[in-house]
Write a structure and sequence with these properties.
- The chain is of the alpha+beta class.
- The chain is built from 13 helices and 39 strands.
- The strands form ten sheets. It has a nine-stranded antiparallel beta sheet with strand order 4-14-13-12-11-10-7-6-5.
- A hairpin with a 2-residue loop joins strand 25 and strand 26.
- 33% of the residues are buried.
Length: 765
């Protein structure tokens, strides 16, 4: 029996209060005004209440039914209950300030970003969560299979599932359902925890306030080691674990999409309740998704997307197995029943890559068909898992790993009893992480052609979180404009009237001119000026160097040539991404597109020009008109009517002159030399040579002064013999004459000159 003395003095004259007593009989003798007496008894009762409440928390499992023990801890009896704690999470703002319960009601479940504070096992955990928008396929529904082809559907729960981190622990992983309560997994660098809210009758037995729900948090218990057998049937290898779990699955590329179906028996729905079983399943799926996006998996990560939730009203009628059958038979029969959908085309709405059968009628362990992801051979791809509460997520992630070509860590030389692919359900800090062995195999598979089926996005729009976003401050991912959209809707942007202000987020509606603010600061990392960002409500230098943009290498000239002959154009491109200008750095100088002439060979005689073709396409019977000074505008004429038809297509000649090769590109006339090179100055010299300097020919000139009066074609006189290769030949009669000019071949044939009709004049060839 411990004694105590409590005294209270008000400082008013001789007023004093003395309380002498002992516990636990609460005997006392006192002398004080009645108001002080009430204060002391109230304080004493509060102290006793706290002691009793704490004791009740430590023994809460004694007040649980057998079903509740299985629900909260995943075990069958009191002797196997792991170490646990009771905590009431607090919803906070980005700065860790507890939010008003009246604001929380409209925020939780609607916001894409959530913050929580909670205490667990003597440590304070600050959680930052981001909605996992890739968890649920857009067309996700719950299917209920009754037998004889009868299927009914109901809506799936709303997506209130989040992934994130413990703010002070960069190696942490948090996967929770966030609503008015939390459900899921918290993996820190020290331990792996599971959390879920207490039911109303259990919550009454622990301390609580009016605005927070008590939650049960427990550590993963250490499990007994079990053996894992391997069976081979042709090409299909089956791995079994007689206790706790066994299975395999995985994914591929920079980010792959693994479409999964979650299938449960009717008894699973009855265990968790019709209104809650899908919520529990999706919480488990969200934890699986978190593990397949964890940094330990390697560079190429996997989006685990639930495309279907199925309730089997009777496994006996639907798949020909009962609860007493072995895991091997359950898997074999489930492959017959659900496996065919994994073999369907990836474009089929009923396709999924893997199914996971989760059942409370499986006593322990799990089983998976190995190495079957993306394979069109065999019976399909899936796994079966014992329901062990939230820890079922570790089973499912493990078994999917087997589907994805992973072996047990101990079989391939990695440490045992630590990581996801251990032969037994692991405990400790690495229970939800991948070993080096798993990472190596996964990355090889995901980066190779065998993972081809994981490249398709599930039907409908499915936003993705790019890998480069990981590790960034929230304001770097969601700038001020995005934060305004989250708070007030798509019509709002960061207020242009409050530039550089970080201590309050002001949002502006350009349509209505309305400016709103909840007086909370802009999220850390949001840009507020050039080379500055918001940190703790202040616009400060982000410390990043100015990075000037640099050009990438040129692509190939792989665009189609605009013309099959007479010179079209093609182009190649480059981008200002080597590096991308940032932090106020200058952009690249120069053009991002480079053109060249292609197919410069002459078209067949009589072929229509490019302009002629364009006019005919625009208006039947029209021909090009060149009277405009706008060389690259298309004008077409029908009779005397001329109409503009817009800009000519790239590669169109600027002029009608066949000896002018200049072409229009993007509405501008670009010079082309006689060498058919864009922007070339090459010209034909006096000798007819492209790019020559005129020294490859000589001039012959003279006059014919003879008085030729003999009539008759056969009596024609020779004025000048033309040498082979003669160029730019011109003859001209100085005055009227009754004679005619002509050109005659050596064999006597006249090439030019119809003397019976020609009048005196000039001839040029």
């Amino acid at each position: 029996m411990s004694e105590f003395i409590a005294m209270s003095e008000r400082g008013h004259g001789n007023e004093s209060c003395n309380l002498i007593g002992s516990l636990p009989g609460l005997m006392y003798r006192m002398r004080c005004p009645s108001s002080n007496w009430l204060f002391l008894v109230f304080a004493l009762l509060l102290s006793i209440d706290a002691i009793l409440a704490r004791k009740s928390e430590q023994n809460l499992h004694h007040h649980m039914t057998k079903r509740e023990i299985e629900h909260y801890f995943g075990v069958k009896d009191h002797t196997k209950i792991p170490e646990y704690d009771i905590s009431s999470p607090h919803h906070t703002d980005v700065n860790g300030r507890t939010m008003s319960p009246f604001l929380i009601r409209g925020d939780v479940g609607h916001s894409d970003i959530l913050h929580y504070d909670l205490h667990a096992f003597g440590s304070k955990l600050r959680l930052r969560l981001r909605r996992n928008r890739n968890l649920m396929a857009p067309n996700l529904v719950i299917e209920r299979h009754h037998g004889k082809g009868m299927v009914t559907t109901q809506s799936a729960p709303k997506n209130k599932y989040y992934l994130g981190q413990v703010l002070s622990d960069p190696d942490s992983l948090v996967a929770l359902r966030g609503d008015t309560s939390l459900m899921g997994m918290i993996r820190t660098s020290r331990e792996t925890l599971f959390i879920q809210p207490l039911s109303t009758h259990l919550a009454r037995r622990v301390r609580r306030n009016a605005y927070s729900t008590p939650h049960l948090i427990y550590r993963i218990p250490t499990q007994e080691a079990v053996s894992c057998e391997m069976q081979s049937t042709g090409k299909d290898r089956i791995k079994r674990s007689t206790l706790y779990r066994k299975t395999r699955e995985v994914n591929k590329n920079g980010y792959k999409f693994l479409e999964g179906a979650l299938i449960v028996p009717k008894s699973y729905e009855q265990k968790y309740g019709t209104d809650k079983f899908a919520t529990v399943l999706l919480a488990i799926a969200n934890m699986v998704a978190g593990m397949y996006q964890d940094p330990s998996i390697g560079k190429i990560k996997v989006y685990y997307v639930v495309t279907k939730i199925v309730v089997m009203e009777s496994t006996v009628k639907l798949a020909n197995f009962s609860k007493i059958d072995s895991n091997s038979k359950k898997l074999t029969q489930m492959l017959k029943w659900a496996g065919p959908s994994t073999l369907k085309s990836i474009n089929d709405p009923d396709h999924y890559d893997v199914f996971s059968y989760v059942s409370n009628e499986i006593k322990s362990g799990g089983l998976a068909i190995a190495n079957q992801i993306c394979s069109k051979a065999g019976a399909g791809n899936g796994n079966v898992n014992a329901d062990v509460g939230l820890q079922t997520a570790l089973h499912v992630a493990h078994e999917i790993g087997h589907n994805l070509y992973l072996d047990h860590d101990g079989d391939v030389g990695c440490p045992q009893h630590q990581y996801i692919m251990d032969a037994v359900l692991p405990s400790g800090i690495y229970a939800a992480t991948w070993s080096n062995c798993s990472r190596r195999v996964l990355q090889e598979f995901l980066g190779g052609s065998k993972s081809w089926c994981l490249d398709n996005t599930p039907h409908g729009d499915l936003p993705t979180l790019k890998p480069e976003y990981h590790g960034k401050l929230p304001g770097e991912i969601f700038d001020g404009d995005a934060q305004c959209v989250m708070q007030y809707g798509a019509d709002y942007i960061l207020s242009p009237h409050q530039k550089g202000v970080c201590d309050k987020l002001y949002c502006f509606n350009p349509k209505s001119g309305t400016q709103l603010s909840r007086l909370a600061p802009i999220a850390d990392g949001a840009p507020c000026a050039e080379r500055k960002w918001c940190i703790s409500g202040k616009c400060v230098d982000n410390g990043k160097p100015r990075i000037h943009g640099g050009w990438s290498a040129w692509s190939r000239y792989d665009s189609p040539c605009s013309r099959p002959c007479n010179g079209g154009v093609t182009f190649r491109t480059r981008t200002c991404t080597n590096p991308v200008p940032s932090n106020g750095g200058e952009s690249c100088v120069g053009e991002s597109k480079e053109w060249k002439i292609c197919n410069s060979q002459a078209c067949q005689e009589g072929a229509k020009t490019f302009r002629e073709e364009q006019c005919l396409r625009k208006q039947s019977g029209s021909v090009p008109y060149f009277g405009s000074s706008s060389l690259c505008e298309l004008y077409c004429r029908v009779g005397s009517l001329v109409r503009g038809k817009g800009t000519v297509e790239d590669g169109t000649r600027c002029k009608a002159d066949k000896n002018t090769y200049d072409v229009c590109i993007q509405g501008k006339c670009r010079p082309v030399g006689c060498d058919h090179v864009l922007d070339s100055n090459a010209m034909v010299d006096r000798c007819g040579k492209c790019g020559g300097n005129g020294d490859q020919c000589f001039v012959i000139s003279g006059s014919y002064t003879a008085s030729h009066t003999v009539k008759g074609l056969e009596n024609a006189d020779v004025v000048q013999r033309l040498l082979i290769g003669a160029y730019d030949v011109s003859f001209k009669m100085r005055q009227s004459s009754r004679n005619y000019l002509g050109v005659q071949a050596d064999n006597g044939t006249y090439l030019v000159g119809n003397v019976s009709k020609k009048r005196a004049g000039s001839f040029c060839c």
